[in-house]
Amino acid sequence: MRGENTMKIVFIGGGNMAMALVSGLLEKGKKPGDLLVVDISEEARKKFEAIGINTSAVFSDSNFNPDIVMLAVKPQHLKEVIRSSGSSLKKSLIVSIVAGIPVASIAEWLGGHERLIRVMPNTPALIRAGVSGMYNASKIPGDRELAETVMACVGQYIWCDSESLIDAVTAVSGSGPAYVFYFIEALEAAALELGLDRDAAKLLALETFLGASRLAARSKDSPSVLRDRVTSKGGTTAAALSSFEGDRLREMIVKGVRRANDRSAELAQDFGGKKYD
Q: Which CATH number belongs to the domain containing residue 118 in this structure?
């Protein structure tokens, strides 16, 4: 196994998450020649070639011999991708960022491959502010650290003790940015309804959410304590929160996240055909 500075990585799939990871690795000093992006789309390949990354429409390790293969394709395409590339993946650590496909399915499609790690990243990885959930199914010493080296380039990460918890990660942080965008949209819509112009509404909604998130991240106090500090009895904030509670907004959010968790588990059946071990 090569050292961290010389390890070679293949990305099968050249979408936005692959671009985020490649860009993060380059920022950390990774040499472009140690990276290869495989995608059937010429348009996708050109984006990577523009930043000096070698690309290919098909994968063969005869000239590259990767330490890590990152699977970054759509769930419905993964089985066929593995079948067409399986003979080239035998020796590498396989890190899958494909939503909904359990490691047992990937292992089966690869004929019993044992070096597997599953990751659920999220889209803030595009600006190096992501958070990922990871599950280690490899028994090879050092594989966990190899995966950490890659994912740390785009943000923070947690390790899950069981693969089923990846569904929870998917529901909370994988889908989470969409919930945040939804709330920002609602706050902006309220500002417009109250008479503010569009530019002002957007600025207030975005900066309030960004500032409050930074405050919560830097504070030792819990979000509930921080909320209490800006909620005066009988005041404007209390009026809004009372309305939210009356509409059971918290319960609705929890219900939605639980449904996302259930759907993630369903995808494992739909695309992977496997339940978790």
A: 3.40.50.720
